Amino acid sequence: MNIAGSLCVVSGASSGIGRACALELAQRQAQVVLVARREAVLEDLARQIRAAGGQAWAFPADLSQPEEAQRLGQQVLHRLGPPHILIHSAGAGAWRFLEETPFEEIPRLMAVPYFAAAYLTRAFLPAMLAQNRGFILSVCSPASRLAWPGATGYVAARWALQGLTEALRADLYPTRLRVCAFFPGQIRDSEYFSRNPGSLERIPRIGRLIPTITARQAALGIVRAIELEARICFVPWPLYLFDRVAHWLPRLAEHLAWSTGARRTSP
Ligand SMILES: NC(=O)c1ccc[n+]([C@@H]2O[C@H](COP(=O)([O-])OP(=O)(O)OC[C@H]3O[C@@H](n4cnc5c(N)ncnc54)[C@H](OP(=O)(O)O)[C@@H]3O)[C@@H](O)[C@H]2O)c1
Question: Measured by CB atoms within 10 angstroms of the end CB, which terminus of the chain is less buried, N or C?
């Protein structure tokens, strides 16, 4: 799919993978719609992109709220038209065992990324279907390929996001809309772990065998996935080897995740 000249909506554009992705797409002459909650941060990024000769607009919205996603969709369609590329990179949620998770946090863990991606896709899908051309990419997590301990709500929400992505691919099979599940490894320069304290320590030690990447490397992988219209993509590539081990030797993979993963501090 051609990036130059396309209209791209990027959620989670105020930091991490979404921000890096917005910069890479703008550099390739895409028009970029920046979505997240922090308006000032999005405005700064839009200015930075415009100063470099690109085109970008800040559209702040809390995507955990269906009415905000719907309003955002209407505003973008009215001002700019239907997007060609939709990137779901908004994500949040601390890693906790279920019994450590306050009841009120359980729906919040599902809200972003899962409901956010469902609402945002719903807001644009009729117009994208009418255009019958486009690409939808979800930034998923290796957690939805192999669950690890101590992050129950996080893992479940990423399985939901992957499920949504695959269900959309099935729905859109006869159309010219393509759908991609993108799996990055650990990002060493994103805000994710500082915004969700206590999570970084819970990455299973076996994960250290996979090199960490920068948000820009993840964004370059996303650009390549769009250009190749990939249906699934892992960055860095050793993550794919782990994925295959988890697929073919699930008991071994479960044992490694458990034996090198987080332990309960109390029984
Ligand atoms: N970081 C990693 O190592 C890693 C590895 C694999 C997969 N992932 C997955 O990739 C996704 C993005 O991670 P990241 O590292 O880029 O995280 P990040 O730097 O924390 O960025 C998360 C983005 O989501 C936005 N967001 C959060 N809640 C929102 C809401 N209610 N409405 C709209 N936007 C919202 C945040 O912006 P505002 O706060 O301004 O709203 C921010 O732009 C996550 O789902 C994560 O699980 C991350």
Answer: C
